[in-house]
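Regression report. Comparing outputs from two consecutive submissions.

Submission 1:
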Amino acid sequence: MKLFSGLALAAVASTVSALTSITTKGNAFFQGSDRFFIRGVDYQPGGSSSTTDPLADSTTCQRDIAKFTDLGINTIRVYTVDNSKDHSDCMKALDDAGIYLVLDLNTPQSAITRSGTNCSYNSAYLQNIWATVDEFATYDNVLGFFAGNEVINNANTTATAKYVKAVIRDLKTYMAKRGYRAIPVGYSAADVEENRLQAAEYFNCGGDGARADFFGINDYSWCGNSSFSESGYSDKVDLYSNVTIPMFLSEFGCNQVKGSRPFSEIEAIYSSEMTGVFSGGLVYEYSQESNDYGLVKVVSDSEVTELQDYTNLKNMYAKVKNPTDNNYKTSDSASECPAVSSDWDSDDNLPNMPVDAQQYLKNGAGKAGGISYNTITLCKGDAGSSGVTNSIKDTTPSSSSSSSSSSSSSSSSSKSGSSSSSSSSKSASSSASAGSPSSAPFNKYALFAMVYATIAGIYGFSSVF
């Protein structure tokens, strides 16, 4: 017992976070008592639909965190991780560098899909994303979780919104049940012209148990040396002026320019013209892929080559400081839910939580399925149907991310040929499954083993189970 206590104390001392957890107030993020602006990049070497986990390899983490520090950023977005792997080295290194993580919980094989949406929302899917929450919830530098990315990509896919919102509810419920910090949960939206405002209002309406804590927009409307008005940024500030949760650009950086990107939009994003509505943004993307958005070219596991976009972005981030006027809305009252119409086909009557997911609420998610675990094709009998309350206090069912493909938005045209989602499958995938995690009820010994193994994983001592 003395040895265990000594190891535990040493582990706790070595993992003390250097960063203060980010919270929300009104339509702003806060780091303690100071308003926090996201200044970052989207990070998924191999592409945003890659099945390589960039946070599970300490060598590449060390390589890239040095560049993050040089760029002067404070946040990265990662689209896909392997929840069966350990991430403590990279998360600690990010924390030491003063960098927060916004994490997409979906994977290309486990996500809410546009086709067969109700089937993709099943207990295996919830178990998988809850296992990812288990892996990351203890890190103070997790700024937030994305429950979905560009699932709605035109007027014909808005019926999926209620399923994504149900996932937000289920994530909040799980974190509360497991005693975790209330990590903010949000949605990353495509910039769809037909329903921009309806989407923001929908995820900001209803009870707090299912309401998003933040709303990201993937926006590529500012190209080259555009302007606040010419790009449409001014119109969007006006459009979203009454949204009472934090908003930010979860992807930006149009590459439809001759030569390198100047990133002149950064001067607008961090100006008082925009910070009353937006709290910064994330440049798409860190590594050079086939879609030609990279800041660096990966040479090897230990080396990257800086491209001209890297230098331009570094210079702009250094030049443009955050405003100090704290111009934000203190009200956190919910929006009125948008009416069902030809442009919006989701009401706030959300699908039931799948009944078999209740065991994971009670006992924890258990064994993680890994990055190749396919839940999309598991159209289980417990798949969601409408009718559950939005309240986080009542999670008992009443009955037993999609890719950034073409849309009418400017983001799709400037990212043609790329996928911006961690959940790129539109339909049933044929990829091999990692094997279904056991859903059998826990006995006392198994529960003890799981708890011990979890503690061992966090604090770095050996598990005998």
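Submission 2:
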Amino acid sequence: MAAVAVAAIQSPQLFAQVAPAAEPEIAPDDGVIVVTAQRREQRLVDVPISVSAVSSAAIDRAQVRNVSDIATVVPNIQINETIGNSFGPLITIRGLSPSADTSLARDQPVGLYIDGVPIGKSTGAAFDTVDLERVEVLRGPQGTLYGKNTIGGAVNLITRKPSGEFGGQFLAGAGSWGQFNQRISVDLPEVAGFSAKVGLITKLDGGYYRNSLRRKNFGEEELWAARADLLWRPSGSFSALYSYDISDSKGTPNQLAATAVTGSGATAFVNALMRPYVVSGRTREIGAQSALRSDYRTNGHALTLEWEPGLGDLTLKSITARRTAITRSASDFDGSPLDLLRIVLNNDYKQFTQELQAIGTAGDFKYTLGLFYLNDDYDVFNPRWNFQFGGNAFDISERGGGSKSYAGYGQFAWTPQALDEKLTASVGLRYTRESKHAYELLLSNSAYRANPAAPGSGVFERDANGNPITRSGEPAAGARPGAGGIGYTDLIPLENSGVWKRFNPEFNILYKFQPDFSVYGRFATGFKSGGINDTAATNTAFMTAYNPEKLTSFELGMKYAGLGNALNLSAAVYHSIYKDFQAGVFVPSLVTTNIINAGKAKFTGFEVEGTLRPVDGFTINFGGGYVDARYTDFILPDGTDVTDTYVLSRVPKWNYQIGALYRHDVGIGQVEAGLNYSWRSSQYSSITPDPLSKMPSYGLLDGRIALTDIELGGGATAEVALWGKNLTDKEYLVSAINLSILTLSQFGDPRSFGGELRIRF
């Protein structure tokens, strides 16, 4: 499969559900694409899994700056933003979408890695990256080599390493609605075996949607990010690489517009208040009473040691890393100036990981062995002004917890020379043990709550009769939390924990009919550990842990790269069976999602992508996919059978993209022009097929024109470019959420334009 890139440069798009059309990068002269999807360097045609690889030039063209931008360069992947904040990307591969929001107690189905370090949680994962060299997207379960809940796939971000030679690049750009960005990276010369590279990013975004009641627009952002790498190579057999990255963003959440009001009785008065503010489509200006905020800061330290002890081609590797994420958000969830629903969410997360690997060859066998350890913990403060539901007018939620994960894994691949190395058969196995603990203190402080023993009055320690147990002694019966002598700090959080273990095997077979044509078959299993609903509304819900999700997957595929690299094509069909599927059930009164186990679900689909170069300088790229995802056994806790009525959320049945790139030498440089179009079918944002949560199908057209390779002398070159997004000004939804009496919708950005200047030296 050819490396892919976007024909139209995209500005960072945190809301994108669609993967705007991916454009293939011009391949090197030999047409060889090398990836590390299986922890060792391999040609893409030799890898028996579905992989998309994005080259550095493609990344530069597409303006891939952060995790959310990956959807702009890889087909058949969807990246959503969590409604109400901009720092928690939710990644979907092959229709397997996150089962809930970005709660730090929950794991996502797609693993995210930066230079081999797992990003344990989605919250804070929208950090900007400096100097990306390559992006690899692995589809299907990757449990053997990646583990840590990669049941749907994995996304690898690989950054540029210090080269030991002086060089670098500078970029300055501007776009619609006050977008400005600058970026510089510099490689320093090697001194006494030490090489270093540093990079810095600054970015401003004025936001398109206006808040008529505040000075700040929706979607504003002021960001800076930096990265430093120090490489020590005292000999040809040993290297030590220390990397540090930081990303700091301050801004406002994106606009949430009220598009429908429903309900009656106790909420009728709220409906009457809201109706004047209901909109029927994209509107640039609404009023939000709340002080809006969407800030995050991430830090990462990583030390990678590699040693070749001289025992054949054995390589020993150690990756030690520590990451932290701090997020602060305040969101208006009523889409009006009435201040009926306001949510504050403060997260603090830290993670430590250690991985040891042994990679080598013994005769016709190649092996990868490893040990993995993760330890993380988090704290959350989450007050909510919730007047619109006529019940818990003010909730305070304080929660936290952590997890420990241990794993050992191995993969063995046999490529017999007797068959001219045409056949490769491999087997892998991973053992995982994961423990989690959590605590929650939820106080429903409301004049409507007269009895603290009522199940809906909050989550905290209670006695056998259901009365609160407090730090100062049990209060009189009937005392109300916050109103009858029970203060928030006097309550005791409720605690819960769980341990889950699993063996996950996989088998692969690949046969090369020609050096550039292969077919493969794959059987793989996946495992996403169980957990605790730390955003539960009752003691019972909090104390009821959900079970692990288990997957069995079958896949057949082919890869071709031939005709002098004029045609690159890959395709795969798959069938996946899930047991104890973790389904997210939305709780409107708390504006959160809790997890329950559906009995079974199945995903059947196919995907294809490729590039065609009919003549020199002209490239056509294409990609698309289909998935039929449905529950086959889903009984709610109350016994209701919803197998045939509930749907898999955020799963468009069809998606496709097509693009073209033309390059022509004009003497002073290369003119480069491209267009791309991407489309996906309708989907629901919740598991109930509610018309108010349905997002219609839509397509986006983007374009870019540039003059590249302008010689400046001294080996320096320049590039100037103009780009446009959503050129047809398509109005489309990127999220819709039914709060039972109110539907909030999040619209994508309208047409925008921009330009940039890049200098390489």
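Expected: both submissions complete independently.
Actual: both completed, but the second showed a warning that disappeared on reload.
Relevant detail on submission 2: Confidence is low (pLDDT under 50) at residues 1-31.
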